[in-house]
Amino acid sequence: MTGGSLQLTGLTRVHHAGQPPALDDFSLDVPAGSCVAVLGPSGSGKSTVLRLTAGLDEPTAGTVRVDGVDLAGVVPERRGMAMVFQRPLLFPHLTVRDNVAFADRVRGVPRKVARQRAEDFLELVQLGGYGGRPVRALSGGQEQRVALARALAAEPRVLLLDEAFSALDAALREEMHQLLADLRMRLDPTILLVTHDHAEADALADTVAVLDAGRLRQQGQMRSLYARPASLVVSRLLGGRTEVRGVVRDGRHESPLGALDLPEQVPDGPAVLVVRHEAVRVTGSADPAADVVGTVVRARRRGLRALVTVEVVGAGGEATVEAELEPGSDAPTGRPVGLRLPVEARWVVPVEGAAGEPARPPAGASGMRRDRSG
C-alpha cells in the first residue's frame, strides 16, 4: 500500500448565504507517505476540511486533487479515500473479520479472499485471532483498531482520521499513536488527520496546520510552531501560557520584566512576549544568572511536575510568567524566586492576533492580578 499526494487549494465552504464561511480559502499540501495534522478548537472548520476532502460536502470554491487529478464531481466511494471517525461505526451484525472485509466485498472480491485479507489487516493492528468475534464483545480501543483495519483494507490513496482517538483514555490513545507509527513504517500511507489536541498532533504528524475560525493561521513542524508562533491565536492553541505586553526597541522587548534580548531582529513597536512554560527555569531569588525575580502566587501539581505562576513587579507595572518545575521540585506560594528565560525561548507576536481580535490575556497571563492564597 502506497499513499498518494493530496493537494487542497483555496477550499472555501459557506453553509448558508449571509453567514461567515465555515472554511475560508484553505490550502494544504499532503505529500505522499506523509502525515499532516489540522489542529484547531471545536468549530474551527477541521471537520469541514475532511468532509470536503472526502467528497461528503461540495466546496463553495477551491479544489481537491489526489496525485494531481481534480476530484470535482467524483463521488466519495470513488475518491480512493477511507475515513476513521471518533466513533468506530462498526456493523453490529457482522463479525470483526467481516467488518474488515466489507470494502473488498463491495468491490466484488470473493468472500474467501476478502476474509483472508481481513485477517492480514487484523494482524497489522494487533488483533490477530479476533476475526470470529462479534464486535459487541470488543473494548473501545479494540473497536477503533477494527475501524482502522477496515479503512486500511480499502487500500486508500489517502487515509482520513477525524478525531479518531479522542474518545479513548490516555493510555489507549498512546497505544493507538504507537500503532499508527508502526503502520506508517510498514505501509507508507498518506494521512490527513484533524485533532484539537496539540500533543496528539505533535506525536503523530510530520507537519501541522493550525486552523481557527475557518482560516489557516500557521503551518510547519510542531517544534517550530511552539517556539515561533505567528500570533497569540496560535500560541494559545498550542498551550502557550505566558503573554507579556510591551514594546520592542532595538532588538529588545521592554516590559515589566525589563529589557530582554530577542533571538532575532524584529520591527520596533508594541508586541507581546511569549515564552513556553517548559523553557523557563525557576532558580533562587539571589541567582545572579536570573533574568527576573518575582514571587510565586500559584502552584498546581501536574503529576511529578508542578506548574507555577510567578508575579513580577517592574517598571511600568506587573507581569506574570508561567513555569514548569523540574520533577520533584517545589515552590510554595509566597516564595521569591528567580527566573531564567533562555534567549532562544523568547518570541514576540503582534499585540493583536491573526484574526485582528484584541490581545485577550488567558488565565495566568500578564496584567491579571493573582490570588495570593494559592
Q: What can you see in these coordinates?
A:
The chain is of the alpha+beta class and 374 residues long. It folds into 2 domains: 214 residues, Rossmann fold, CATH 3.40.50; 117 residues, OB fold (Dihydrolipoamide Acetyltransferase, E2P) (Beta Barrel), CATH 2.40.50.140. 22% of the residues lie in helices and 32% in strands. It has 9 helices and 20 strands. The strands form 4 sheets. It has a 6-stranded mixed beta sheet with strand order 6-7-8-3-9-10, sandwiched between helices. Helix 4 packs across helix 5. It starts with 5 loop residues before the first strand and ends in a 25-residue tail after the last strand. The relative contact order is 0.12. The C terminus is likely disordered.
Features:
374 residues, alpha+beta, Rossmann fold, OB fold (Dihydrolipoamide Acetyltransferase, E2P), 2 domains, six-stranded mixed sheet, five-stranded antiparallel sheet, 9 helices, 20 strands, elongated, disordered C terminus
